[in-house]
Design goal:
Layout: E1 9-12, H1 16-28, E2 32-36, E3 46-47, E4 50-53, E5 64-66, H2 71-80, E6 88-89, E7 94-95, E8 100-101, E9 106-107, E10 112-113, E11 118-119, E12 124-125, E13 130-131, E14 136-137, E15 142-143, E16 148-149, E17 154-155, E18 160-161, E19 166-167, E20 172-173, E21 178-179, E22 184-185, E23 193-196, E24 201-205
């Protein structure tokens, strides 16, 4: 699957996650039109040699990608910023030809997405994460580095899976739930619940 846009890309967000996104775009050999951020503390700084600008001069026709790691914040920005949104796959990642990726989704270095998987919009599949066959990943999900999903897992909208966490086959991680770093889900996790440990157990419910 080749989702690399031909046109220069505008990166929305100049924080820490922007380093990952800018590095990915540079690895693809695609020009970066601009990095734009409303935060005056980062405007004027550079990310991997690219200056961060205020969005006041932003053109509406440039393909763009959101460099916003927090899921709720990314959802808010995605609904406010006009597209088109680029879907980016690092050249060191593997995505099966029949896997489906939504607009704005980013697949980082070393990630693997197996056949039959469906990944929604504005999803972050971070470094070295794996999505096995026939998984369903909702919009605004973030799989942190080293997450492993077995086959036929469903991760609903906005869920966050922490570094090195894992989900056994066929389970459901509910909308806006959090699976803690290193946790192993051996049963379904309800929506908005934070679960930690091995096996993962509910810790609290978020809003």
């Amino acid at each position: 699957m080749n989702c690399t846009p031909a046109a220069p890309i505008t990166v929305i967000g100049g924080g820490g996650h922007a380093k990952v996104i800018v590095g990915l775009i540079q690895a693809l050999g695609v020009e970066i039109a601009a990095i734009r951020d409303e935060n005056p503390e980062v405007v004027g700084m550079t990310v991997l040699g690219v200056p961060v600008e205020h969005p006041s001069t932003e053109a509406s026709t440039e393909p763009r990608v959101l460099a916003v790691g927090d899921n709720r914040a990314r959802a808010v920005v995605a609904k406010r910023v006009r597209g088109p949104f680029a879907t980016l796959i690092h050249p060191a990642a593997f995505v099966a030809p029949d896997a489906e990726l939504g607009p704005g989704t980013v697949v980082c270095a070393g990630a693997v997405i197996q056949p039959g998987a469906h990944v929604g919009s504005h999803v972050v599949v971070n470094t070295g994460s794996t999505i096995d066959h026939d998984c369903r990943i909702g919009d605004y999900v973030h799989l942190a580095p080293g997450v492993n999903l077995a086959g036929e897992v469903t991760v609903e909208e906005g869920a966050f899976l922490g570094v090195g966490s894992a989900v056994v086959n066929g389970l459901v991680i509910g909308a806006w739930a959090t699976l803690g770093a290193g946790a192993v889900a051996t049963r379904n996790i309800e929506a908005t619940v934070t679960a930690v440990g091995t096996p993962a157990r509910p810790l609290r419910r978020t809003r």
